């Protein structure tokens, strides 16, 4: 069964979120992103895992496969091949971060031998190719061995043939539907996008996805390159570097909403800080910025992978309001009034007919 942890999905953080990566890759139209949430039609889902791989915040997971555990097991084992008919679901279910993490430790080969004749190749194969290219772009830049993609057509012992393979997805779904009849039936009729109380509360918690934690851990063990290279930000989908231009008025929405605390502020609120290695590139800060002040930088410095640094994206003067005493962002106005007291003063003036 496909599980959605709503408190991790950026659609639940803001109605302005435009994230639709899960819907875009789903080959069976089992996922619909909506304003303020995501609906899943469990009866359509074939559990290929592709949506799990593209979700930036790990909001989606298969009950039958924990990808972090799979990666750990593979790292421990002698095996170095990953294939959809051999030991994994669709290779699109392996995000770029996991591919890089694996590439740092092992000579990994992805078996793409079944892709050409696969029923879901149209949605998934371009993403598989792009993820491999992206992982190799990063691995190559830091002097690690790149990942190979080969047509091995490796099969698990007693694996069903191709036609039976997809029938099995449906069969698996039907068996689980029996076990989880109640929830499943509810999902069949009306896939609710509502959050439970505990999920709604958990939205305030800032969490770093497991895939990012694993990458951190393995990068620490990898020798630092002699010199750091710059990567083109536009070729990356899992991390980013950012800039904030002069139009920013320190409204605070970007750092309050960032799900991983990649964006943050100081106690005084006079700076917007950014930690590139915590950014999962969910695009939420861009979606909610009314003035479009936050932008992607042209380059991502690979130094961030080994020596992450928090940088100042914007700095402001903070002063106390002459009226209420609250701290506010000062842009050189004549009257030292916070926005709320300024509005109150303007309203009072118009009420009394004072210019
Ligand atoms: S955060 Fe994940 S689950 Fe939510 S819309 Fe984006 S891809 Fe889908
Ligand atoms: S900095 Fe922006 S793109 Fe990066 S994780 Fe935070 S909200 Fe998402």
Ligands (ions, cofactors included)? iron/sulfur cluster
- The unreliable regions are none
SSE ordering: EHEEHEHEHEHEHHHHEEHEEHEEHEEEH
Average residue pLDDT? 91
Strand content: 15-25%
Number of strands: 16
**What number of domains?**
3
Give the arrangement of secondary structure elements.
Elements: E1 2-4, H1 21-25, E2 31-34, E3 37-40, H2 50-54, E4 60-62, H3 67-76, E5 81-83, H4 96-105, E6 109-111, H5 121-141, E7 148-150, H6 162-179, H7 181-189, H8 197-202, H9 210-221, E8 230-232, E9 242-244, H10 253-257, E10 263-265, E11 271-275, H11 284-288, E12 294-296, E13 299-301, H12 303-306, E14 310-315, E15 317-320, E16 327-330, H13 339-351
Parallel strand pairs: 5-6, 6-7
Antiparallel strand pairs: 1-4, 2-3, 8-13, 9-12, 10-11, 11-14, 15-16
Helix pairs in contact: 4-5, 4-9, 6-7
The structure holds iron/sulfur cluster (2 copies).
Short description:
The protein is of the alpha+beta class and 355 residues long. 35% of the residues lie in helices and 16% in strands.
